Amino acid sequence: MNSKRVLLKLSGESLSDNSSSISEKSLLKIAREVKSVVDNGNVRLAVVVGAGNIWRGDGKFIERVTADKMGMLATVMNSLALNDSLTKAGVKSTVFSASGVSGFVEKFNREKAVRSLEKGYVVIFAGGTGNPFFTTDTASALRAAEIKADILLKATQVDGVYSADPKKDKNAVKYGALTFQEALDKRLAVMDAEAFSLCMQAGISITVFDFYKDGNLQKVINGEKIGTRVEG
After folding, report:
1. How high is the pLDDT of residue 1?
2. Among the four given CATH numbers 3.40.1160.10, 3.20.20.140, 3.30.470.20, 3.40.50.2300, the one describing domain 4-231
3. Across-strand partners of 5?
4. In 3D, which of 84, 86, 100 has the Cα closest to residue 37?
5. Secondary structure tally for the chain: helices H, strands E
6. Is 128 left (phi over 0), alpha (psi -120 to 50) or beta?
7. Where are the domains of the chain?
8. DSSP letters of 1-43?
9. Residue 75: which of 100, 106, 59, 52 has the closest Cα?
10. Distance set, CA 228 to CA 12, 87, 98, 153, 157 (Å)
11. Residue 9's closest CA among 213, 217, 188, 168?
């Protein structure tokens, strides 16, 4: 069976809990889910982690470009924490950063990243795109296109994409599937427009799903109808 290349986008909050910006319990949960999908050898998994648990760049007292650079550094911290957790769980993993952080992680190189994937490593992409004004959603779409991923999975705390916030609107409707154009027209908060554009051009579908329910990562990779699928 041919291996499937998957890009998993995790929010920074997925590493945290109510008492810590980086939680051991949360890291163990992620490592357990990742290990379950890579152990069979048919999945080549890459991961992009956000930085919202450490820094959102909301401080108006810090200039935007500087704030975005701080956010990129925060993703490196999260990636190092995730790499450590995966290694302890017996999962081979490595980190590449869009911007060089000498002595900490290797600078991103597409060819090396793809070779690492093919050797069975979980490849963690840190540092966003390496440029300010772009989100880690866009970085996820960019890396997914570069490694020729079959699908991009966006891990969230809800079970898909809704017409409104289901926590605030009891009449919110869940979408089982959407086209990129429908998601844009309805202004649904799935991913930003740049990420959509990259995925559309590369022909990569996006699935938004509840990562916090045990076993869902394996189910969505297996093709079960979990969450909301967005495609061309």
Report:
1. 44
2. 3.40.1160.10
3. 44
4. 86
5. 7, 11
6. left
7. 4-231
8. ---EEEEEEE-GGGG--SS-SS-HHHHHHHHHHHHHHHTTS-E
9. 52
10. 21, 31, 29, 10, 13
11. 217
Report the SS3 class of residue 229.
Answer: strand
Token couple for 12: 């920074």
Least Cα distance to 138 among 150, 159, 158, 154 occurs for: 154
| Ranges of the chain whose pLDDT falls below 70 | 1-2, 58-59
Q: How many C-alpha atoms does 73 have within 13 Å on its Cβ side?
A: 10
Nearest CA-CA partner of 158 in 228, 224, 210, 212 = 210
Q: Which two tokens stand for residue 39?
A: 């152990």
Cα–Cα dist 114/104, whole Å: 20
Cα radius of gyration rounded to whole Å, the chain: 17
Q: Is 126 helix (H, G, I), strand (E, B) or coil?
A: strand
Tokens (6 digits) for 108: 């991103």
Beta strands in the chain (DSSP E): 4-10, 43-49, 93-97, 106-107, 122-126, 151-156, 161-162, 174-175, 177-179, 205-210, 228-231
Q: Between the CA of residue 188 and those of 81, 107, 162, 169, 226, what are the distances in Å? A: 31, 34, 8, 15, 18
In this structure, the dihedral spanned by the alpha carbons of residues 190, 191, 195 and 201, taken in order and rounded to 10 degrees, is: 10
Instruction: Report the distance separating Cα 214 and Cα 232, nearest Å.
Output: 29
Nearest to 230 by CA among 122, 124, 114, 141: 141
